[in-house]
Amino acid sequence: MGLRNQGCEMPLFLKVARRAYIAIAELTWGAVLFLFVAHLFVSYILLGIVGEDGLTGDVATYIYYYGVTATTVGYGDLSPAGTAGRLIAAFFVIPGAIAIFTAVLGKLLSGISGVWRKRMQGAGDFSTRVGHMIVLGWQEGASQQLLSMLSGERASDEALPVLVSRSLAQNPMSDQIDFVRAERLADPEALERAGISGARGVVVRGENDDETLAAALVSATLNSSIHVVAYFEYQRTAEIAERQAARIETITSLSPELLVRAARDPGSSQVAKLLLSASTADTAFSMLLPEGRAPIRYGDALIGLRRSCNATLVGVGRAGKVDLNCPADDPISSGDTIYYISDNRLDAGAIDWSAMEGAGR
């Protein structure tokens, strides 16, 4: 019976010993904590045995002595008084405390490095981020310019844009953007990690129209209020995206239209480039008319913005439609989007809209 009990005890003991060996070999946090407590306690006992009451007489004093010893600060205000105490400190307390302190620093630095490496390789989690832009897809050159412009237009309190790509192994612009690596652009899990629920907008440009369409539709589904801009090679695919979700704004190649317009109206292509450029003056911007105010005539807003902000009103967007060069008597109501040309983006809340009433009459 006794032999049977011993046979049952041995596997459990070996199992515990094996786990302890693995923990110490891999230097887990549990192993480091155990070694720290054990060394702290044994050092206290040994110093107490040899009569170092100046170090062990008060717990707070001993912890202070152990801390300055482990961190190699060594103020010199506390030290062993006797020969035995000095030998114990030299051959046990100091080497062990420093080794444990070094192990803690190494694990902390390794952990921080691991988190940074994961973020660089696209394994980061930005699901709690709010008010940022997300870019889906990477094309060398074009995407880099797009992300640089988005980063350059960020407000001081706006978070970095997040790039989602399946073709990159690590963040290509770590000083300007964050990065999420995905198996496919339409992957809901990757979009959640990119912070789709709190993002202010999404720009989609896949390797082909099928990938762009899928990613745009999934983005619009995951966030019912987000604005999605998608670039398509073919107009028919763009029309399909707009029919499926009215909040998807599609862009197709403008080259044929620009060629015709520039041929008939010289300089038109330059005008288009200036209006769309984020790095030059006289750029087209948009803003919402603040909630809770009375409607204002288009003509009054046109003259008022010119006088007070040196900006030129060019159109109004409402119900998904944009109307340029509106009649002067057309009302602009709260929630409508105003499109204007200005050297800088305007703050709708800082404009005195009531002072514009009657400006165009």
UniProtKB/TrEMBL annotation:
<dbReference type="InterPro" id="IPR013099">
    <property type="entry name" value="K_chnl_dom"/>
</dbReference>
<feature type="domain" description="Potassium channel">
    <location>
        <begin position="37"/>
        <end position="108"/>
    </location>
</feature>
<dbReference type="GO" id="GO:0005886">
    <property type="term" value="C:plasma membrane"/>
</dbReference>
<keyword id="KW-0812">Transmembrane</keyword>
<dbReference type="InterPro" id="IPR003148">
    <property type="entry name" value="RCK_N"/>
</dbReference>
<keyword id="KW-1133">Transmembrane helix</keyword>
<dbReference type="Pfam" id="PF07885">
    <property type="entry name" value="Ion_trans_2"/>
</dbReference>
<feature type="transmembrane region" description="Helical">
    <location>
        <begin position="87"/>
        <end position="110"/>
    </location>
</feature>
<dbReference type="InterPro" id="IPR050721">
    <property type="entry name" value="Trk_Ktr_HKT_K-transport"/>
</dbReference>
<dbReference type="InterPro" id="IPR036291">
    <property type="entry name" value="NAD(P)-bd_dom_sf"/>
</dbReference>
<dbReference type="Pfam" id="PF02254">
    <property type="entry name" value="TrkA_N"/>
</dbReference>
<protein>
    <submittedName>
        <fullName>Voltage-gated ion channel superfamily protein</fullName>
    </submittedName>
</protein>
<feature type="transmembrane region" description="Helical">
    <location>
        <begin position="21"/>
        <end position="47"/>
    </location>
</feature>
<feature type="domain" description="RCK N-terminal">
    <location>
        <begin position="184"/>
        <end position="246"/>
    </location>
</feature>
<keyword id="KW-0472">Membrane</keyword>
<dbReference type="GO" id="GO:0006813">
    <property type="term" value="P:potassium ion transport"/>
</dbReference>
